[in-house]
Amino acid sequence: MANLTESTAHSHPRDSYVAMIQRKRLYGGIMLAVFVLMLISGFMLADERNAGGFWAGLPQLLDFPADVVADASTKLHLLPAHLVKFFPALLETINIAAASTLIGALFAIILSLLSTRGLALWPRAIPLFRRVMDIMRAVPEIVIALVLIFILGGGPVPAMIAIAFHTAGALGKLFSEVNENADLKPVEGLHSVGATWFQRMWFGVVPQVSPNYFSYALLRFEINIRASAILGFVGAGGIGYELRNAMSWGKGKFDEAAAIFILLFLTIVIFDQLSGYVRQRLIHQEAH
Amino acid sequence: MADAALYARADNLFQRKKLMALALPAVIIAYLVYVFFAFDVPGLAERARLDNARTLVADMVSYKTHVSRDNRSGEVTVAIEGERKGEYAPGQEPDWVAMRGAAQVIDLGDGHVVTFLPENALSYDVPGFGLIEARVDGRDIVTNLGDNAPDWISVSRTRLNITTEAGRVSLTRNRTEVFRYFTGWELFFFTLDSPYHGHSVSEIFFGPQIDPARSNIVGAWQDFWHNAMWRHSDVAWALFETVLMAFLGTFGAAIVALPVAFIAAKNFAPLRSLRFVTRRVFDFLRGVDGLIWTILLSRALGPGPLTGSLAILLTDTGSFGKMFSEALENVDNKQIEGISSTGASTLQRYRFGVIPQVTPVLLSQVLYYFESNTRSATIIGAITGGGIGLLLTQAMITQKDWEEVTYYIVLVVLMVMAMDSLSGWLRKRLIQGDK
To answer: What's the CA gap between A141 and A228, in Å, rounded?
Structure first.
């Protein structure tokens, strides 16, 4: 009996362990090889479908930045004036991002509360609100923006609505994850004194979760600045619109484009760093 | 004494909280009011084109069939949406158009009947109004309406336009046209030249062979797939191209960022200056942003999916580099020490001590980005010209194929939602599999 246990303990488990590890490695290796193959063939396919080939275009990659830098440096004295000229457009882009984040977040709070178990006003409608958020999240901003530009004309409002719509869905999902971790005791307490649903949420839930809401909203704001710049490029106002105009001037007149590049780059970096810093502080505050 | 101080502090806190509770909404409302005027929302009402909205919504769910007569040659054609691709072959006209030699009787339903008469004349019998007669006389249009035509008829010397709930009639010197509206998306499955047009699903699957050269299912699939009006195969390819852009961009960026992230992580990179430089490179890649990368790359490489892929790759290398290096800084040192106590080399320490720890975190971030990049790829495609984004903008620019726009939007939303579930499923499987 003792002999038997000893032999299994020594040989059998070890063999099967090694076999398992080898099998695991083999599968892992095959998966990795398939993945790399997919990636390589994907790049080859994309290269084939591209108007200009990668290897043909590679030497020209720096031509455009060189043109921009050359134009900017020959007209360096104009640069401050350009920066001032395009600042209102930049402000519009930031305003689009801020307003859409704000409006989107307000809708997201409502949607998330309506789709969290234990908090929802109509528990039966939870799946409905979840699907609504999924769809809102899935619609790319450009789709709504282009349709609204057709109806409302170009300008910041279509971009704001488009981004706010997407933001409500994206933040709603994150917020409802936050809500799920909220303590229900204050809600029950408020319920026992006859508070309405709105009062229960406003005084029972929101104070608990607001730091997390704020942190996610800040991250979203940063993403939305990029989105509003891109939407400007398709005609929704702001710095993106100015960039498209500046690009159409052509070689020798890229000094305006250079100014816009600088403004856009600085804005994104500043807000990126700022939001990172504030979120870091929020997390530390919570840890205390 | 201590109590008094405590009370004072509590009062202070309450005061502050009360102030915050009032001030924060006030600031938000003030800001929104500022934005309201900065974006000129009051002026929007003037600029808004509600007629555009109406055509858009109507066109999304309905289509029109044109019956038009060339007033010079007298040739009459019946075509869906007035497109050559949707033209009925002579003799195959729908049953509401009756060809009677030189005259054509067009039944618009509900008792509305338009008749094309010889010598460029037409008559329109509107129930409850009477018979409208019009003809081209030399260069002018002459009608029996007199001077006081109702507002749904616009008549001038060169043009007559009648819009009723049943359809629209227009008469100019060169053309006589009647539009009849139908609900639905026209010819979504088969165009008119396909033998399968007008057959039901059960007929195609179980009925007798329709086209002698091909079996029903194969033939129907071929005609559906190569439908000239909706171009299903091109749309499917465009969707694939969009996903391809997201796939190459995201996973390419992850592969580039992983090794470089080690240089940017505090606990792996001994050189402070190198770490600093790497981090600034990541910040730079992220700060330049997809838009500028797209513009820059499309100048050199031309429009297409590769440009989009590389734009996503560059931006996300920055994002992943930052996130990966943060994840690496949070690894547990005990596992690495354990591995090194067995005499493992540096490479082995990373492979067995670090990678298994960070893989779940990294994979979940990468998969999350994959899903969100499918959306970005649609947007970038609209700028660089690739994938479904391009089809979408093209269909929008023509401002008339709103049913196609709707089709693309539905497909984009379904694609993103499918990607969302795929990445969620993979995340669950891979991360739990690792544990």
So the answer is: 9
Report chain A residues whose CB lies below 8 A from the CB of B247: 38-39, 42
Contact B378, B245 (CB under 8 A): no
Same domain, B319 and B174: no
Residues B147-152, mean pLDDT to the nearest whole number: 77
**In this predicted complex, what is the ipTM?**
0.84
How far, in Å, CA of B37 to CA of B31, rounded? 10
Look at residue B244 in the predicted model and tell me its pLDDT.
Answer: 93
DSSP strand pairing (B112-117 vs B159-164): unpaired
Cβ-Cβ contacts under 8 Å for A65 (sequence gap 6 or more): B296
Domain boundary assignment for chain A: 2-49, 65-287
Please provide the distance, in angstroms rounded to a whole number, between the alpha carbons at the two ends of chain A.
58
Specify the range with the lowest mean pLDDT, choosing from A8-22, A144-158, B285-299.
A8-22
DSSP string for B216-254: HHHHHHHHHHT-TTT-HHHHHHHHHHHHHHHHHHHHHHH
Counting every residue, how long is chain A? 288
Q: What is the pLDDT of residue A7?
A: 47
Q: Does B306 contact A49 at a Cβ distance shorter than 8 Å?
A: yes
Query: Which two tokens mark B300?
Result: 């050199």
How, if at all, do strands B153-155 and B140-143 pair? unpaired
In a domain, B219, yes or no: no
Residues of B in contact with A47 (CB under 8 A): 306
The pLDDT tens digits for B400-411 are 778 888 889 999
| Domain count along chain B | 2
What is the C-alpha separation between A61 and B365, in angstroms, rounded? 30
Q: Give which of B283, B309, B316, B281 is closest to B294, Cα–Cα.
A: B309
Please report the pLDDT score of residue A224 as a whole number: 92
Distance from C-alpha of B123 to C-alpha of B134, rounded to nearest angstrom = 6
| Helix (H) or strand (E) segment spanning residue B134 | strand B130-137
Nearest CB to A139 within list B38, B396, B413: B413
Radius of gyration over every alpha carbon of chain B, rounded to an integer in angstroms: 33
Is B16 domain-assigned?
no
pLDDT digits (tens, 9 = 90+) for A118-146: 888 888 889 999 999 988 988 888 888 88
| Cross-strand partners of B78 | B67
Give which of B296, B283, B426 is closest to B363, Cα–Cα.
B426
Residue A92 CA to residue B142 CA, distance in Å, equals 54
Q: Left, alpha or beta for A155 (phi > 0: left; psi -120 to 50: alpha)? A: left
Task: Give the residues across from B155 on adjacent strands.
Answer: B160
Residue of chain A whose Cα is closest to the Cα of B32: A99
Pairs from B183-186 (Cβ < 8 Å, separation ≥ 24)? B183/B61, B183/B62, B184/B61, B184/B62, B184/B63, B185/B63, B185/B403, B185/B407, B186/B63, B186/B65, B186/B80, B186/B81, B186/B86, B186/B229, B186/B403
Q: Find out if CATH 3.30.1480.10 is the number for domain A65-287.
A: no
Task: Let me know whether B164 and B257 are in one domain.
Answer: no
Supply the range of the domain harboring residue B276: 232-434
Residues of chain A positioned with their CB less than 8 A from the CB of B299: 60, 63-64
SS3 (DSSP) at B148: coil
In this prediction the pTM is: 0.83
Would residue B397 be called left, alpha or beta, if left means φ above 0 and alpha means ψ between -120 and 50 degrees?
alpha
Given pLDDT bands bounded at 50, 70 and 90, which one contains residue B38?
A: confident
Yes or no: say if B267 and B331 are a contact pair by the CB < 8 Å rule.
Answer: yes
Contact A50 B301 (CB under 8 A): yes
- The confidence band for A1, taking pLDDT boundaries of 50, 70 and 90, is very low
